[in-house]
Design brief:
358 residues, alpha+beta, Gyrase A, domain 2, Alpha-Beta Plaits, Elongation Factor Tu (Ef-tu), domain 3, 6-stranded mixed sheet, 6-stranded antiparallel β-barrel, 19 strands, 20% helix
Length: 358
């Protein structure tokens, strides 16, 4: 199978990035150390090449109604120029993907989907469009996407000239031009920090990448991105989310608006009793990894780690795990088995760190 490359592939090689296949693309895992990259995002700013993500454009009189129908969250009542995070579900309520839909206008919506699910999402969404007066374009090959994340990201983009001194709330989006280049800027991201994602031409992405690095923004890879999202407990498709679970199994009840008139999966989710519960666990010793067994105090198997790593900020092993709901211990005492050794795990009701998004 041919491995794909983003528009910035040569830039990553010039920086001697450690590269690896991810979702069909040759992607940078890290440039320096994961610790340095995480600390840069938490304290200043880092930039990620996320050009492997997929972009679909929905246009027409029914664009908003169509997107509202295919996702579980409330898109119809979102204000113009707002972003909405949502699962994309089948009729039985299971999750096809999670995505962000951007309301660019009354007749124009941008949908950003996970790289590993571009074809699956495109086929599914296309098959549901017949009753709606709108067009659907797969523009995944046309866009590059950079994510600048960190507390200084707004200041830096103003220095570059991409942001003017206007109010730009969290989870908002705007279409703009910069030196005759059309760009779309969203105040979104996957790190828990303030930040922006810039959809642009491939040519502009190369210019912006170099400009950001010249201003001291640290290039960051997928390894640090995974630590960052796990520290703030953001779910990842293929880990916390998959084809077998519903949003109600995976801690995403807040994204399912059952009061909506109609959406795909509503009937199933109305009567659904969750089989799993997503929990947040930390260890004083040991690093939990995906697939490790989670036990109760009687050493009964009750679930599996879906994501695990060493937290840069807390200095502890952290994990999210799917626990069988009928086996979830009421005393919230868990054990994680790491290579045949049992480690007591601390239950967390909130994310491991707060992050700093606006």
């Amino acid at each position: 199978m041919t491995i794909l490359k983003t528009s910035l592939h040569e830039e990553h090689l010039l920086l001697n990035a450690k590269m690896a296949p991810f979702a069909g693309f040759d992607m940078p895992l890290q440039y320096s150390s994961v610790k340095e990259e995480v600390q840069a995002v938490r304290s200043f700013a880092g930039v990620f090449d996320v050009g492997h993500m997929g972009e679909f454009l929905v246009e027409g009189p029914d664009a908003i109604s169509f997107v509202d129908y295919i996702i579980t969250n409330d898109f119809k009542n979102a204000e113009l120029l707002k972003a909405v995070y949502s699962p994309l579900c089948r009729e039985d309520g299971t999750i096809i993907d999670d995505l962000i839909a951007y309301k660019l206008s009354e007749v124009k919506v941008l949908i950003c989907v996970n790289a590993s699910n571009i074809k699956k999402d495109w086929d599914w969404i296309s098959s549901k469009k017949s009753q709606f007066n709108c067009t659907l374009k797969n523009q995944s090959d046309d866009f590059s996407l950079l994510a600048i994340q960190g507390p200084e990201s707004e200041k830096i983009l103003k220095e570059v000239g991409l942001l003017k001194s206007v109010e730009f709330p969290y989870y908002s989006i705007l279409e703009s031009t910069f030196e005759d280049q059309n760009i779309i800027i969203a105040r979104t991201g996957y790190t828990g920090e303030d930040g922006f994602e810039i959809f642009s031409s491939h040519q502009f992405a190369k210019f912006l990448w170099k400009k950001l690095l010249s201003l001291g923004v640290k290039p960051c890879g997928l390894a640090s991105r995974d630590v960052l999202r796990l520290e703030v407990c953001y779910p990842l498709y293929g880990h916390e989310l998959n084809d077998q679970v519903t949003p109600l199994d995976a801690g995403l009840l807040w994204t399912v608006k059952l009061a909506k008139n109609e959406f795909i999966g509503k009937a199933a989710l109305l009567d659904y009793k969750p089989r799993y519960q997503l929990v947040k666990l930390s260890l004083d010793r040991g690093i939990p990894r995906e697939g490790y067994d989670v036990l109760d105090e009687q050493l009964n198997l009750i679930g599996k780690v879906t994501s695990g790593t060493m937290s840069v900020v807390t200095g502890k092993g952290i994990a999210m795990a799917l626990i069988e709901k009928d086996k979830n211990p009421k005393d919230k005492k868990y054990i994680i088995n790491i290579r045949n050794t049992n480690y007591p795990a601390h239950f967390h009701s909130k994310a491991f760190i707060t992050g700093g998004h606006k």
